[in-house]
Amino acid sequence: MSRQLNLGFITTLSGRWPRELPEKRREEYGSWLQDKLAQVNIIKADRLGDSPQALEAIANDFKARAVDAIVMVYGAFTGDDAPAYLAEILGVPIILWAPKEPEFDKDTRLWANALVAVTMNSAALKKLGHTCYAVYGDKEDPATASKVIELVSAYATVKKLRGTMLGLLGYRPTAFYNCSFDESLIRKVFGIRMEETDLKVVFDKMDSIPREIYEKDMSHMASAYATDQLPDKHLENHSKLYLALKEVVKQQGYDFATIKCWPEMGNLHTTPCAVLGRLADDGVHIGCEGDVDAEITQIVQNYLTGLPTFITDMINVDEAKNIMTFWHCGNAAPSLRNPNREYSINNHPLAGQGTAFYGSLKEGKVTIARFCNINGTYKLFLLRGCAVDMDRYTKGVMANVKVETPVIKIVEQIWEEGIPHHYSIVWDDIADKMISVCKLLNIEVLEM
């Protein structure tokens, strides 16, 4: 089954309205959607939706091509019959997009009357129990364009989630209750499937990697980083694990994974922090400490951006500067490094039983989030901020993020809501897109 969103596009009008403006909008808005939504399969109606016969032909084509949602642009005034028919026949959500009225004065007629049409159509669809979203404004207006893109991106993300396979490489670390999860609820809410692969499979795969293969990777790492400070065998274990995890994830057909990264892996001197960072830059995303809910957050952020994310703790706040420090042992992707600061590979900063990156992460707008199962209901913790240029001040990797809300208020609200300690950070401002995803999944957003 294809996981690309199939988006139907139709321009409508009721029969007696002039055709020139609708034809113009059909061409221009169809081209705009194809240009702005390159990752979506746009299925354009081959005619105007201006009669029952035209609507039937378009609906049959959309059904044959399995559209997941529809963008209906108002070429001109459209009665309730058109969107109601599409919703009933196809059973998919409709984005009702009403461009603004072309310029007119007291001596000219209305050419579209789209605002009236979208208002009555939206009310009619809701009365009939169908899902629709109304948008008013021209494609050239940034706010309007963003709203359409956010809605379509949300639908595309939800479709991808429904086919996602999440691999569990072990369960959770000792005494980390917040990393437990409800597999049935996750399947129900997000549509994500899960399967488990024992860590022994990973260890056996490490032992099977040919010497010439892992030594080639060791040489690559030695040329990219100063590795001479690593304890004996740590670099060898790093390269073996890097290659083994790539292979296991591919063989098992996992789209994403979580891993129980301690204590067993540490006991074998193969704590995987730096490995996970490298894999993220390769498009292999594995969440640490077996935290499935944090990993679901990473999945959504990655589907929305295509970027690696940083799964992290919040370890400190600076009330004077209103900065929050997000830190973890050394699992950030090297592409997230701050180019103004040193970035190195070292022994694990806490346990000393594997490899980890040390450094600060780059500046820029970030979205910090976590999906949380709170008393059997999913909510999204959401925070906007800006990572600042600041060196790390302890071993490991960190991002120092300036936020708007007073930091102590955020911390206290986290405690009050019962939000766990792991978060996923992506270097992009996608808070509004994540909110749109949550609306589709009926998930409450706790924005701070």
The CATH topology label of the largest domain is L-fucose Isomerase, Chain A, domain 3
**CATH class membership of the largest domain:** Alpha Beta
CATH architecture of the largest domain: Alpha-Beta Barrel
Number of domain modules = 2
The rounded distance between the terminal residues' Cα atoms is 38 Å
Report the biggest beta sheet as strand number plus sense, adding barrel if it closes.
Answer: 6 strands, antiparallel, barrel
Mean pLDDT: 96
Strand content: 15-25%
How many individual helices?
14
Helix share, percent: 25-40%
Number of strands: 18
Note down, in words, how this protein is organized.
Keywords: Carbohydrate metabolism, Isomerase. This is L-arabinose isomerase. InterPro entries: Fuc_isomerase_C, Fucose_isomerase_N/cen_sf. It comes from Lucifera butyrica. This protein has about 450 residues and is α/β, with parallel strands linked by helices. The protein has 2 domains: about 5-160, 3-Layer(aba) Sandwich (Rossmann fold); about 165-445, L-fucose Isomerase, Chain A, domain 3, CATH 3.20.14. The protein has helices spanning about 20-35, 50-65, 80-90, 115-125, 140-160, 185-190, 200-210, 210-225, 235-250, 265, 275-280, 290-305, 405-415, 430-440; strands spanning about 5-10, 40-45, 70-75, 95-100, 130-135, 165-170, 195, 255-260, 285, 310-320, 325-330, 345, 355-360, 365-375, 375-385, 395-400, 425, 445. Strand 10 and strand 11 form a beta hairpin. The two termini are about 40 Å apart. The mean pLDDT is about 95.
